[in-house]
Amino acid sequence: MDNIAAMRVENVNFFYGKKQALRNINMEIYKNQVTAIIGPSGCGKSTFIRLFNRMNDLVPNTKVEGKIYLDNKDILYPKVNVVKLRRKVGMVFQKPNPFPKSIFQNVSYGLEIKSKNKDFIKEQVVKSLKRAALWEEVKDRLYDNALGLSGGQQQRLCIARCLAVEPDVLLFDEPCASLDPHSTRRIEELIQELKEYYTIVIVTHNLQQASRVADYTAFLYLGELIEFGETGRLFTVPEDKRTEQYITGKFG
Amino acid sequence: MKSEITQKLGFTLLFFCILIMLFFLGVLVYFVASKGFSVLSWNFLTDIPREGMTAGGIAPAIVGTLYLTLGSIIFSLPLGVACAIYLCEYGPKSYVVNIIRISINNLAGVPSVVFGLFGLAVFVKFFGFGVSMLSGSLTLGMLVLPQIISASQEALLAVPQSYREASFALGATPWQTIKKTTLPAALPGILTGTILSIGRVAGETAPIIFTAATFYMRGFPDSVFSEVMALPYHIYALMTEGTHPEQQTQIAYGCALILLLLVLSVSAIAIIIRQKQRKHYG
Ligand SMILES: Nc1ncnc2c1ncn2[C@@H]1O[C@H](COP(=O)(O)OP(=O)(O)OP(=O)(O)O)[C@@H](O)[C@H]1O
Ligand SMILES: [Mg+2]
After folding, report:
1. Three-class SS string for chain B?
2. Average pLDDT across chain B, whole number
3. Residues B65, B230: contact at Cβ < 8 Å?
4. Closest atom of ligand 1 to CA, residue A39
């Protein structure tokens, strides 16, 4: 497989105050592929994925070193326009977090910021809901409050909301952590469909999930990238002893 | 076994405290209502005071209190919410901002008569607004500003961080995030703070003695620069001045009753608004 790098991570360190959470990370995120980030709790998965859309900017008293290239531009450069960046790199969070507004307003939220064209917005909302495999379930109640949806539906709504602004990259931080097995399966199928259009990075606790959805997998441990490679290979013949211990359940 | 007895004793004690509180509240309401009820009439509500305050009504004082309350809220609500937004959402989390925050909290503890003197010096004299509705409203506004800021800050801090993250992640700017998400979600809490402030403003006497209130007016205030009658000050004046203490005391209780009802109904309206908002922003 010939892979084009959508993003390249170079020598990234991250600090919460004095505490170092990421240590010298180097890797590539491939275009139109799903990359999973796995590792035990507290190893820095969320910290890492939140660098790609500069979400850690919201956390006071932090410091980042190194570079992450997207379209040949270093997105960690302090003067980068984070608003533009976040429209290119969308994020879905661990807990579904729809706004306490209607289903339609949730999806149009990111669009209204940019455009006043009502027809375009409407069209885009429908398209995004369809792409997020939610349209059939909500088409009759677009103006109901989004908080009335089930957890799995809410998470797909958050995905739709994110797709509406037409990002290139999608970040998922444990998107199924609070969902039941059925909803989880739906989201996994969805991720498979979405990779045709987007580059996807997904953090997951669930090793089976990583092996089901991811083309590439990165194993983080205590803030270090221990191993990165094709998912099949990493799960069958891990190169590092620690990876092997983790995937066989020796710690985590 | 022993811990059960202790618990029972504890709860009984707590229940007893509530009873004491209810007792005083009941006595207060009964006292004011029974003494004030006899003077209540349509005339009392709509007429101006007559015959050296011993007859007629208190309409100018009711209207004056409404104006002063409204004026102070118009001034302090936007300013207070703006300050709170700056402190919570925009302001750098620095030493200076912390000091500002602490100062605001201390301001809330300053006695109201001090605000009265401040209003006299600044609004009445320095700005030359004179003893007027404007001076009084601004002084009362200053008085409740810290309270509104604190309540708004708490309301903003109570908005789940996940709303802000969701908004930022969609490429919204901090300003858009506040306008479209944070502020609407905080509104019910902010209104709660405002309700409490309204009660306080309507009942305050000391800040308006030097800045706005007058004992007697023939009609209603005709501009923001006219003096006004106000219920709390009117009560005070009725009890301390004049030549017919008997009749005046009765009227004072009537005023007190009206003041109570006024505060309660304004609060009720605000509570209804808040409930409606809550439905929207679960
Ligand atoms: N806001 C913060 N301030 C200080 N330390 C933090 C903060 N957020 C995370 N950390 C620390 O950084 C390390 C990495 O945290 P992170 O949330 O990235 O882990 P994670 O791999 O996502 O864990 P989990 O699987 O539990 O979500 C942890 O040791 C954590 O305690
Ligand atoms: Mg995490």
Report:
1. CHHHHHHHHHHHHHHHHHHHHHHHHHHHHHHHHHHHHCCCCHHHHHCCEECCCCEECCHHHHHHHHHHHHHHHHHHHHHHHHHHHHHHHHCCCCHHHHHHHHHHHHHCCCCHHHHHHHHHHHHHHHCCCCCCHHHHHHHHHHHHHHHHHHHHHHHHHCCCHHHHHHHHHCCCCHHHHHHHHHHHHHHHHHHHHHHHHHHHHHHCCHHHHCCCECCCCCCCCCCCCCCECCHHHHHHHHHHCCCCHHHHHHHHHHHHHHHHHHHHHHHHHHHHHHHHHHHHCC
2. 88
3. yes
4. 21
**pLDDT digit string (tens) for B27-75?**
998 989 998 888 888 888 888 888 777 778 888 889 999 999 999 999 9
Task: Starting from the CA of residue A48, give the closest ligand.
Answer: 1
pLDDT value of residue A251: 67
Which parts of chain B have pLDDT scores under 50?
A: 282
Q: Where are the domains of chain A?
A: 5-95+164-247
| Residues of B in Cβ contact (< 8 Å) with A86 | 168-171
Q: Which residues approach ligand 1 with their CB closer than 6 A? A: A 16, 19, 21, 39, 41-47, 59, 205
Residue segments in chain A with a per-residue pLDDT below the cut of 50: none
Residue list, CB under 5 A from ion ligand 2: A 46
Q: Could you report the per-residue pLDDT of B83-117, keeping only the tens digit for each?
A: 999 998 887 777 888 888 888 888 888 999 999 99
The ipTM (two decimal places) reads: 0.92
Class of domain B44-281: mainly alpha
Q: Is CATH 3.40.1260.10 what the domain over A5-95+164-247 is classified as, yes or no?
A: no
pLDDT at B198 (0 to 100) = 84
